[in-house]
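Entry:
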Amino acid sequence: MTEEQMPDSEYDKLELEREKKFGPRYKWTALSNTTLGVLMATIDSSILIISLPAIFNGLGVNPLTPGNIGLLLWLLMGYIIMSSVVVVTIGRLSDMYGRVRLYNLGFAIFAIGSTLLYIVSYAFSGTTAVILLIVFRLVQGFGGGFLFANSTAILTDAFPKNQRGMAMGINQIAAIIGSVIGLIVGGVLSAIDWHLIFMISVPVGVIGAIWSYIALREIALIRKNQRIDIWGNITFAGALAALLLSMTYALLPYGTNSSGWSSPYVITGFITGFVLLFAFIIIEIKAKDPMFHLGLFKIRAFAAGILSLFLAGIARGGLQFMLIIWLQGIWLPLHGVNFVNTPLQAGIDMIPLLLGFLVMGPISGKLSDKYGARILSTTGMTINVIGFIWLATLPVNFNFVEFAAVIFTLGIGQGMFAAPNTTSVMNAVPPEQRGATSGMRATFTNMSFMFSIIIFFTLLVVGFGNALPNTLYNGLVSQSVPSSVAHSISELPPTSALFAALLGYNPMQILLPANVTKTIPAANLSVITGTHFFPSLIAQPFNDGMHTVLIVAAIMAGIAAVASALRGKRHA
């Protein structure tokens, strides 16, 4: 029986016993500590987006050369891949051995990974340093998996059901704030000293680990005498790893194709992932003590909440990347901002999205405690549909006031959806399943983020790549670049051009051979390497791809709204 289904008298008795044992202030201790953990984990998930140029330059590695793009992707994506693969297993183990115990362990692992990253940034250089950074980012992601898997379960244990929406709202705000703060802090620290990018999480991780060990208490009943579902864990982790790695390498060009979808390795990875996922389902149905009880999907509120969360995540997950590329690669340079300064400025220009979430996140969480999740979450996704369609109508060189209004509206919609939906999912399951449920929720969140990036990036590359070669060739020839050189540069993979925009590089300064720049008139060279040339050339091809991306996002958000509306009434 879930707490939502308990008679009021029985639930009130449970709450009095909990408060007598742990004190009235414990829930606020749990909220502040888990919020710190989520904030730190999400800051580190986004801080490298802005910081990568400074890191690669500091290590003496060009991330845009064909051999190094894989390193770039792993440094960027490895963290979320690792946390996604382990988070459900950790959630299940938390139900068996204690949520607080494993949460504390996660803080400690995260602090160790952060410390090793900082040491490596000083002690090594070149590709060796990049490889070691990737390894210890995986360690960070492993620790982050413990935090993601247990934070919502710990909050659900600590707060009464009539305050959980508010608690989840604050926790979700920390996650969104962290992703935006990571962009801004990454830009600021890159300008000061790029080594500090790895140092910043060390003291937070150490303090958080000590604090959680001292202050948090195990409220949930530990489920003893249960066996670990070894084959379930292996097949699920293998399936996720195969799918996520295939999606990551699908971003890279393969042969003459602009993406890697036709690569035999990517195709094999997807087939392997789906076969293992099917095997996992069969194993879980037959297991005595399954890693995750698939029967939870029979609970309408849980199934609808997870489905709407996944679809909403696909709709908005890659939006941050797309908007950053839009700002850094086109809009900011067209408005005179030097490519080197675009990463930090893009982070600042994304603040309206954060403000929208800050306004609505706690309000929706509080309201969901009284009115339930269905109306709020459904309305939030409907607002997102409107926001995506509105964003699709903007020209590439938009008016910033209107752009800010659009992303503020998207923030409002996301804030209205997140906390009520999370609370509904956690309230729908039995208390002894909260760890595994929290892990599953985190897995679907991370998976939706990866799916979103892959789907949107592929759509963008297709629309972008069709028009880019001719546009780039004609633009270079018009500025006295020899035809043979212009033809070679025009064959630049669209992925490389988009990564250059994402990282704040001026592609023309990298692509033009040094011996060719000496033959081009100074006035023409100044135009080619200026802030307007490349953005002006890619503006229309980018707009074609981005329009498709935003329409697909609106469709996904619309389906998420329908799924949210089907979650049923507040009480089971």
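The chain is about 80% helix and 0% strand.
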